[in-house]
Each structure stands twice: as structure tokens, then as C-alpha cells.
Design goal:
141 residues, disordered C terminus, single chain, mainly alpha, 3 helices, 2 strands
Length: 141
Amino acid sequence: MNTQFNFARFGKRIAVVATFGALCFFVGVPRAHADDRDRDRDRDRAKCQQRVEKAEWKLDDAIRKHGEYSHQANDRRRDLNEQREHCWNEFHSYWNGHDRQWHDEHDWDRDDHDRDRDHDHDKDRDHGDHFRDRDYDRGSR
């Protein structure tokens, strides 16, 4: 029986084990980083969603307390648009809390509050034109 220790054989085994360990480590690390990035992105997107919902709530509250066309409502509308713009710049989408979904088109300027406001403004303008025409007609008699 040969009891002499074979250093060359032991060294080769250590090299094989070390190579295998390094391979496993480097193959697993990118996946872990990708999972971390996805988790961070989901967390950041959830924070963005919460900020938009808070801004929507403040706008609704300002409209309820001060009216659709009040200075306070316009300020809150501006804040909401800033939050949506922030989400858009970061995720190329924005959250709409009224329909509870993410949108991938830059169309928040067509929000219900703004659409109602534009529609009412059109009605006021038409109404003003109507009175102006009637006044004109009255003067021509």
C-alpha cells in the first residue's frame, strides 16, 4: 500500500472544484441581479401609482370643496399632471386611478376632469356667441 500523498492529483481536484464553483456563481449572479432589478422596478412603479392616486384624490377633493374651475382645483390638476409626467418619463406609462389601470399612451390631458372643463368652456363660448348674435340682430332692426 502506497501511503504517499499525491499532491498533483489533489491540486487537479481542487482546480476542478474551484472552476465548477466559479461557473455556478457567475451563471447565478446575473439572474439574481435581474430579479433584483425587476423587484426594484415593480416597487418604484407601485410608488409612482400611489403618488398619482394621492394627486387624483387631492384634485377630486379640491373640486368637491372649491369647484371644478377653482384656483385650488387647477393647482391640484397641475400636480396630478406632474406626477403622471414623472411616471411617464420613468416607465413610459402612467397610472389612471379612475379606471384603475396603467396607460401606455401619453393621453392624460384627456382626463375626465379636463374633458368636462373643455366641454363646458365650449358651451360657454357658444352661449356667448348666441347672445352676441342676438344683440347684433336687435341693433339691426
